[in-house]
UniProtKB/TrEMBL annotation:
It comes from Streptomyces cadmiisoli. Keywords: Ligase. Residues 409-481 form the AMP-binding enzyme C-terminal domain. The lineage of its organism: Bacteria, Bacillati, Actinomycetota, Actinomycetes, Kitasatosporales. This is Cyclohexanecarboxylate-CoA ligase. InterPro entries: AMP-bd_C (IPR025110), AMP-bd_C_sf (IPR045851), AMP-binding_CS (IPR020845), AMP-dep_synth/lig_dom (IPR000873), ANL_N_sf (IPR042099).
């Protein structure tokens, strides 16, 4: 991290960080979208006017404001306006519907809700009314406006809880994750330290800004003073045009994004997909080693993958100068200030980027051990060089006849099979074995039909132990995925196939 970025990383609050960046480089572009270029100075000024408009509506320091908005300039402006006021904001992914949104509004006791109106054919304003939400206002194009002279001083400290993020909530209700400005700045600083961007880079935010990765990425922009292209609805090949127009040098999001870029690259293998691109980076889901190797080999760019979660936006990250083996097989190293401890195979964390707990005190008590380390539920180990290797989730360990089997180990091998486009391995209830191993596979385009016999023969040849071989194969057109970072939803696969016996 250069001297300027390091100095800015000591900012006490997110608003302070924006002001300090705007003072240093007011005319440098910050956000690029739909032909618009918003400079750091303009972002600060517009956020302050929006803060004044919100203040006129009754928003005060500590007021809980929920917002369910897509990735747009206006969303970033509104979020910084709330940070200027010292309000408590609870971002909601735009794809969430009544159950999740209603739960979040009730649990957070939100007094206001910002929505996009009708977006992608769905009327968010009407949903808010059905839910009986308070203080509903639309913030897609027009934002509240006012005279900044009416505003109280900005918050002086960044250690108070001012953010409530939500875990994805699969088989149970979502958890409200409590963050401070300082924990978000720490997470973004970790990301920037690993990726080592420069002021000449052009980034991209192609995932929902309401995801914990939103402030993570924005902090990196503020630290290094480079812009990002905002993509409201990411799809390929449509997004390629805007990426090329702005000369995007940093792209990514998650493993699913890497695979999408690879699919497009393979349509014209002799021509660079994005000529200016130098680095794909992301996290949020496991990265099979073969995906790393394919990106480097076929796209001619570096790929660095990291490990984070809603509770800790950045834990480890691969660095561009790591060895190819470490970039392929590990999640990178933790930055200074992030303590990683392995207890009975589980990854536990302590540091400034770790959340302050959950809205429910009982969940907080359960999540942290007696020394203040967060129990992640992830399994892994540290190498001699300090790199973290993830081997799966506690709930992803398949126990077959008393033997523990790692789903990730099998998945990594399947990703190397030429007939496999993507794969998820799950454990299914079995009266005789306890659990049986089931592989659910998306086939690669043009590949011949994959059979259970052919798959197990391949896995045997790759050296997989016999007791780990899948006993069931399901071939699907598409694996079920979340709408944020396109993570495979294994719980849906378990629900779908738990009653099947092959």
């Amino acid at each position: 991290m250069n001297d300027t970025a390091h100095a800015l990383s000591t900012s006490r609050t997110l608003w302070d960080l924006l002001v300090r960046r705007a003072d240093r480089t007011p005319d440098r572009p910050a956000l690029l979208q739909d032909g618009r270029s918003v400079s750091f100075g303009a972002l600060r000024d517009r956020a302050e006017r929006t803060a004044a408009g919100l203040y006129g509506m009754g928003v005060r320091p500590g007021t809980v404001v929920a917002w369910q908005l897509p990735t747009r300039v206006e969303t970033a402006v509104l979020s910084f306006a709330l940070a200027r006021l010292g309000a408590v904001q609870t971002p909601l992914i735009p794809f969430l519907r009544e159950r999740e949104v209603g739960f979040a509004l009730r649990e957070s006791r939100a007094e206001y809700l910002a929505v996009p109106g009708v977006w992608r054919g769905f009327d968010h304003t009407e949903m808010a009314r059905r839910l009986g939400a308070k203080g509903v206002f639309e913030a897609y194009e027009d934002l509240p406006d006012g005279d900044p002279a009416v505003l109280p001083p900005p918050p002086a400290q960044g250690t108070e809880v001012r953010w409530i993020y939500w875990t994805s909530g699969t088989t149970s209700e979502p958890k409200g994750v409590l963050h401070t400005d300082r924990s978000l700045i720490a997470g973004g600083s970790c990301l920037a330290h690993a990726l080592r961007p420069t002021a000449g880079d052009v980034g991209s935010i192609a995932f929902p800004y309401a995801h914990i990765g939103g402030p993570d990425y924005m902090v990196m922009l503020l630290l290094y003073g480079f812009p990002a292209v905002l993509v409201e609805q990411f799809a390929l090949p449509e997004a390629l045009t805007v990426y090329r127009r702005h000369g995007v040098t940093l792209a990514g999001g998650s493993t699913a994004f890497y695979s999408m870029f690879l699919t497009e690259q393979r349509k014209q293998p002799d021509s660079p997909l994005l000529p200016a691109l130098r680095l794909l980076a992301g996290g949020g889901a496991p990265k099979p080693p073969e995906v790393y190797r394919a990106v480097v080999r076929e796209m001619g760019v570096q790929l660095t993958h990291g490990y984070g979660m809603t509770e800790v936006p950045m834990i480890t990250m691969g660095a561009p100068d790591d060895t190819p083996e470490n970039l392929a097989t590990t999640e990178g190293r933790p930055p200074e200030g992030m303590e990683v401890r392995i207890v009975d195979g589980e990854v536990r964390l302590r540091g400034e980027a770790v959340c302050r707990g959950y809205l429910d005190p009982a969940q907080t008590a359960e999540a942290f051990d007696e020394e203040g380390f967060l129990r992640t539920g992830d399994l892994g180990h540290l190498t001699d060089s300090g790199h973290l290797v993830l081997t799966g989730r506690l709930k992803d360990v398949i126990i077959r006849k008393g033997e523990n089997i790692s789903a990730k180990e099998i998945e990594d091998l399947l990703h190397q099979h030429p007939a496999v486009g993507d794969a998820a391995v799950i454990g299914l209830p079995d009266a005789e074995r306890g659990e049986r191993v089931c592989a659910v596979v998306e086939q690669a385009p043009g590949a011949g039909a994959l059979t259970l016999e052919a798959m197990t023969s391949y896995l045997r040849a790759e050296g997989l132990s016999v007791h780990k071989l899948p006993e069931q194969l399901e071939v699907v057109d598409a694996l079920p995925r979340g709408e944020t970072l396109r993570k495979v939803l294994k719980y849906k696969l378990r629900e779908r196939y738990s009653g099947t016996v092959k």
